[in-house]
Amino acid sequence: MGVWDIIYLVCMITGLVYTLITLFFGDAASEWMAQTELPVLQPILLVSGLTAFGASGFLLNRFTSFSPLMVAGIAVLAGMVIAVAAYFTWIKPMENAESSVGYSMQQLAGMVGEVLTTVPADGLGEVIISMVSGRSNHMAASFDKEMIREGTRVVVIDVRDHVLYVAPLQNSEDKESM
User: Fold this and answer.
1) Is residue 175 part of a domain?
2) Is the pTM of this model over 0.70?
3) How far is 27 from 141, CA to CA, in rounded Å?
4) Would residue 178 count as lying in a domain?
5) Phi first, then psi: what are they for 12, rounded to 5°?
6) How far is CA 51 from CA 10, 105, 148, in A?
7) Average pLDDT of the chain, as a whole number
8) 151 — alpha (psi -120 to 50), left (phi > 0) or beta?
9) Closest CA to 18 of 39, 2, 3, 33
10) Which residue in 10, 19, 92, 155 has its CB near the most CB atoms, within 10 A?
11) Which of 62, 79, 105 is the last residue before a domain boundary?
């Protein structure tokens, strides 16, 4: 086995070992490296490229009559192609897929809820709002300064100082059929 074979095998084995460690013991190194802002330095890209470089270099070196320099060039190219493919397969889609169950109070404006505790004309009651993340209870005041009875469906008109200003939902049958 030549020097180039050893280099390629070390690269390939390093990538495979990193993959197995990540698979079985979590991705602590990925979290550490993910703090970088450059998408090129994402661990999955580095490991994919390193593994592809090592594997293609080893196979080309062993089973073709190409010169060592040509094998190294093809191996580098193969590593880069696999890294780019990994970027568009995993990294790019995940950037758009990140979501959170958290929300800001301002996002509640326009949402529909139900009065749990009667909202007096000049006081606070309680409404429940159903969202993707579950149901949440909030203090509510009447936007029109009119009492809103328990069980009434309401729409959030405004949010100020962590209080939802609500009004009874008109034509609730029309809204439900949409």
Assistant:
1) no
2) no
3) 47
4) no
5) -65, -45
6) 9, 47, 65
7) 83
8) left
9) 33
10) 155
11) 105
Query: At residue 128, what is the residue type?
Result: I
For residue 14, the number of C-alpha atoms closer than 13 Å in the C-beta half-sphere is 16
DSSP assignment string, the chain? --HHHHHHHHHHHHHHHHHHHHHHH--HHHHHHTTSS-GGG-HHHHHHHHHHHHHHHHHHHHH----HHHHHHHHHHHHHHHHHHHIIIIIHHHHHH---S---GGGGTT-EEEEEE-B-TTS-EEEEEEETTEEEEEEEEETTS--B-TT-EEEEEEEETTEEEEEEPSSHHHHHH-
Average pLDDT over residues 1-25: 84
Higher pLDDT, 78 or 178: 78
Q: Is 49:80 a contact under the CB 8 Å cutoff? A: yes
Separation CA 74–CA 68 (nearest Å):
10
- Residue 41 lies in domain: 3-105
Q: Would residue 34 count as lying in a domain?
A: yes
Spatial neighbors of 73 by CB under 8 A, at least 6 apart, are none
In total, the chain counts a number of residues equal to 178
Same domain, 14 and 95: yes
Residue labelled with tokens 């109070």: 105
